[in-house]
Amino acid sequence: MEGLKKDVIRHVVSSLGSDYASKSAYNYYNALALAVRDRLIDNWIKTQRSYYDEKAKRVYYLSLEYLPGKSLMNNLHCLGIYETARKAMSDLGFSLEDLAEQEWDAGLGNGGLGRLASCFLDSMATLGIPGYGYGIRYDYGIFHQVIEDGKQVEQADNWMRVGNPWAYERGQHLFPVRFFGEVKNWTDEYGRLRHTWTAGDTVLAMPCDMLVPGWDNHHVINMRLWSARSDVEFDLDFFNTGNYLGAVEEKIFDEKISKVLYPSDQIEEGRELRLKQQYFFVTATIQDILRRFRKKHQDMTELPQSVAIQLNDTHPAIAIAELMRILLDEDLLDWEVAWDICVSTFAYTNHTILPEALETWPVSLLERMLPRHMQIIYEINARFLREVERVARSEDCGQLCHRDLDHLKQRVSLIQERPIKSVRMAHLAIIGSHSVNGVAALHTELLKARVFDDFQRLYPQKINNKTNGVTPRRWLWSANQPLSRLIASHIGTGFVRNLDELTQLEPLAADPAFREAWRAAKLENKQRLQAYIKRKLMRELHTEHLFDVHIKRIHEYKRQVLNLLHVVTAYNRLRHGQAADFTPRTVFFGGKAAPSYFMAKRIIHAINAVAATVNADSRVNDKLQVVYLPNYCVSQAERVIPATELSEQISTAGMEASGTGNMKFALNGALTIGTWDGATIEMAQAIGPELLFIFGMREDELVSLRQHGYNPMLYYHGDEELREALDMLRSDAFSPGQHGLFAPLVDNLLHGGDRFFVLADYRQYLGAQQDVGRLYLDQEEWTRRSILNAARMGFFSSDRAISQYAREIWDVAPMAGLQNGKGA
Ligand code: GPK
């Protein structure tokens, strides 16, 4: 402890240039972070060196998004110095919790997809897998959300304004990134046609490394984030021609590439700068991968034995064309050889079946920005379509009937002609990869049967499932110390590394004393949340209420509106005195809406309007409260999830690819009210469906309802309570003076076809909520179920997910000496 204290003081003085006697929490947080980083860097160097020495096969995880959140607490826990740090900082006059609050969340992602990437890096580090995360170091991460007059207002997230003590910026290792220009054709000495791309613009990519430690194993992996730097400073021409200010403007223009994260989630924006971001990130990453590979290898055909590249959705899919370009134009390999290398190296993860999320890029834009890549994509497509034709005409063409060949070719082509001629990035990712995976069992089945059915017939081995998982380090141990300590006192700490060990809790569910202790941990977390809400929102929570929580991005398919209709109905029953047996509850909502997503923003407004009305109504507000948590983010999730008793996972069946919040809640002892969707299905199977509150129509039922003609008006007319709730929303009951404010929301349900079947599931949802309320009155039974939920969540560790990727897709093994945890 004395060592750490000394280091902290030294950093306050010599790294931060401050007086250690002036007790600034900001300085002491930064100094502590630097002292922790010092303890990581030696192991990072040793880890990286061991990969070279052992010629280990490396895994590269390519993702445009990461959501690490805050690093301090997690890193202290991984290093096993949390208690030491707590005492050291308390000696210096600080509470560790307060210091941790000084850190800004690294919010370099939108939601589940980015958080999954961060959980995966944590698991690779813990399992000892030679992994690297690659991404973009956005100057501005996901916007900061404030709620003003009930509406979302976006503010810039200037997360690095005060620097980032965790990152190493490596300004001396710059990689060139080229755009635009033209392609020249030439003939090589064997008479083969060759291509050289001479680019118009050049930008530089600077690596920033964030260290990702494993749990108690001395293994530290790297997350390398690229930041755009102009090369103008090196362009003497500008100065010679006297155009100094022009040079500066160009510099600013170049550095715009990594300026901001696009804040839309599962909605395609199709902006030119976004494509620039993708290629900028991809080319720098591929150059870095090949630089490392070439240190030990000359023969490019050995690449797939040494390198696995995982594409996190299609955002980095242009990597396939980029690797082809390098192999063809720089290494001068033949097409077939280059293509085999690519397919064997790449694998692709799909995260959604929503059609509006599937990426396409206009051919005209690609031709201009990346002319050589567009040529390569055309060639990939031509060869692929010939192959399709061959398979279709062959005897074992199965269901491929060659009468339909033209249609089949149109459907699978990399190029779509309408509405504008564009490249389908998912098709590029599928045919350029040896593995295509979905993120939960149902999702993968839907990929095979619906979205990519043609590809499933063409390549029956390619599509596979890897159900998502979450890291128990952050989402149980670090976020929920009261519960973790209780668990550890009964079964030891092995569960943090091997989450299956939680099954040892099962017999304890029958032990009244253990149940009481379990409830005490929950209450402690509820009180902690209460204090936080008081500080931030100046509101008093009732900790004896059932805490009912719906936090995730705002999206119509996630059906925050269904939850809201339940709240309005409960409000009406209480007002009308029809709810004598109502179980008091506080309903929490939280989540960001894409700034361009009109309906999602209106939903936020409606939730806040209903909240204001309900909370102000003294007839009901001792029994029902609604809280909107502004700026939902990773660190807020860490506070809210441990305090939650009811987890809302109520997406339209078939639409939530997996969900990962669902896992975090159950792991922390919340019971789930949910639809038969995503990974909630597998959770119900692992836990026992009777221990969750499952309701609503299933995916196949919705398909047939749709086919037979779904008429939301029938539900409206047939259900008095539903009608009352919708009529109130449409009138100005919650928006006095702003008549019609929420009409778009209601019209969407009644006259817009209710694409997400809110009305079809309303009555069943109410029934399930009634069951929840009733069960909550029986605290012993509720607690028993809560314990069993957590005890059966072992499968949903990201360690299990990553082990499956490693074995079944990447063909990599953990580093020797790390298999059993402790490393050298
Ligand atoms: C899926 F397609 C996308 C996307 O653009 N962003 C995103 O967060 C989510 N996702 C899914 O919606 C979740 O169901 C899933 O658990 C998560 O990705 C991780 O796979």
UniProtKB/TrEMBL annotation:
It catalyses: [(1->4)-alpha-D-glucosyl](n) + phosphate = [(1->4)-alpha-D-glucosyl](n-1) + alpha-D-glucose 1-phosphate. GO terms for biological process: glycogen catabolic process. It comes from the Bacteria. Transmembrane segments: none annotated. Pfam families: Phosphorylase. The keyword Zinc does not apply. InterPro entries: Glycg_phsphrylas (IPR011833), Glyco_trans_35 (IPR000811), Pyridoxal_P_attach_site (IPR035090). PANTHER family: GLYCOGEN PHOSPHORYLASE, GLYCOGEN PHOSPHORYLASE, LIVER FORM. This is Alpha-1,4 glucan phosphorylase.
